[in-house]
């Protein structure tokens, strides 16, 4: 009894709140419009200052132990992690010509002076750290690959070829066919001149204009592989993303006009949705944020949310005006009916975005913040601005006639749906839902974490970046997927026999793991040096217990293989690919070895290199995915319960969303799409947006039930109004994002496909499965 009194008191409190807001809003319409005009001008001006923003550290889970270890020893590990490989190819022949080597030197010099390059660790045939060594009768000799007395003569070119072979650079810095050479370009996270985070967009633009375009005009092919180039290509594709956004907006606007046949309400609705996006971007700029390549699609999602809510508003205004109300009266009644369910639905959308914050990857957390700001703006524009605008423009007579025709034409459809979800027919629908759920579980059993394709999965296989990556894999022996293990010892102990012997055993064991192709380390170099100092006899290519022999073998080792204190020795394993299974096998093998063999003096730490960081990312995503989904469903379910005060209603609304999520995962598994940074947010966003349908429909159903109608009649009346707008919204948004499958960016095409499926499945679930569950759980009267 007390609980019923408490609920009734709460409902009366909400009614009073809605009544107060209604009076304030519609009695001061001009003031409301002036407020939104001023806010729009201010935020629109700030939106002009918004700039693309990307950071290496925001793309990785910085609190994961692997990444924490990398950041701890970043100075020595940078050449194997945030690094570009610039391939300079001679299409006319091999690299050993005077003209080409001079061109290679010019490329090297131009890259050297681009801000953001770690110049001390830059390496190519022309840099001083490119050294060779050999054993002669007189002892050990060494020198630069391109010596100081190089003059471009045939003799000098022959000497360079010999030095390249002595330095063991064939397959790593020089192509196996000698037609191209690599410049390895480690990058600094902060621009040394400004102290600001490195602007990857500006960096890649400089690389494009000063290197790629400049030397292409001279007949030299330049290829670039690495994280920075991926980000740069994504940022440069912003114009394509904007084009698809414009196409989607135009398509949705046309569909909206065909639905309501009123240009005034269509224009007001689209303008309000675009204003929401503009204010969102302005707030981002005001708070000091930018748009990274993955958040650049969020404005469309905010536009889609706006359309979803605006269609409900238009539909009810049309319905009220069709009964003889003025545009002002119709807007007031619509506001009164939609304010609570609309606000609840928008808050549910926000919750879907906020739960992404549990994923400890900066780019996903920024996406969550970006989207949440958009929903925050949408609460004001959809709940307050749009009703006021509609009170002025209303719906044209043609639009009202269209509404009447649509009601008549859809009468039999909605009558059939209402009859279909009666308890005697609802059981087969629920049974079909359970069958689909079982098929979804079966299909999703092979869902993988991480990337499943070679190269950069953000782009299509025929993209320039993936063609460049394929060229490197075809013409070089070393892979672009590098997993770096940090072998830590006490100072000046890394070259002693106990450390070298343990590291050597680790290397041998890892080389037996499927997917590990080769290894590069201090210890491989030391064994070569020991052999070289013993007349090149292979039987001496073993470690010595004599510390002087081991110390001498460490002399002249490149700085990327050991730090100055001889306490960190990176061991780089080159992998066949960066698929989740390969990375998982490597991580498991290193972990098992470390547990068995590492002691207090020696530590085996993971991981750096692009493959090591991706392994950490996969681990974080795998740990966070279920946690995120559980939070999404629990929190949104709790909000639905607070709205309708019924666990049975909450279950009826949330079950179709869960079915859609499972089916979406099954489709991802079947088409070879892994759970990763680009796809993980889509599911949370789909749940947040999809719950809108159910909230609006059940809210109208509840209103008719409160008037004394039985469940089937109340559902029929709800479907005639809200059901039509739900069907239109689902189909229109699905059609709008379907255009994304033609995008040159594969990750945008993937997101488009997943959103199409979620929009459609959530729509069908709200119109069929939710009423079927409600009729079974609530009884014939729905109480």
TrEMBL record:
Transmembrane spans: 241-260, 267-290, 296-316, 337-359, 371-395, 425-444, 628-644, 651-671, 677-698, 719-742, 754-778
InterPro entries in the cross-refs: MMPL_dom, Mycobact_MmpL, SSD
Protein's name in the database: SSD domain-containing protein
Topological type in the membrane: Multi-pass membrane protein
Keywords: Cell membrane, Membrane, Transmembrane, Transmembrane helix
Subcellular location per the Swiss-Prot or TrEMBL entry: Cell membrane
Species, as recorded: Zestomonas carbonaria
Any one GO cellular component localisation term in the record: plasma membrane
Domain of life: Bacteria
One Pfam family of this chain: MMPL
Domain SSD span(s) in chain numbering: 270-392
First-listed, main subcellular location of the protein, grouped into a coarse class: membrane
Keyword Secreted part of the UniProt annotation: no
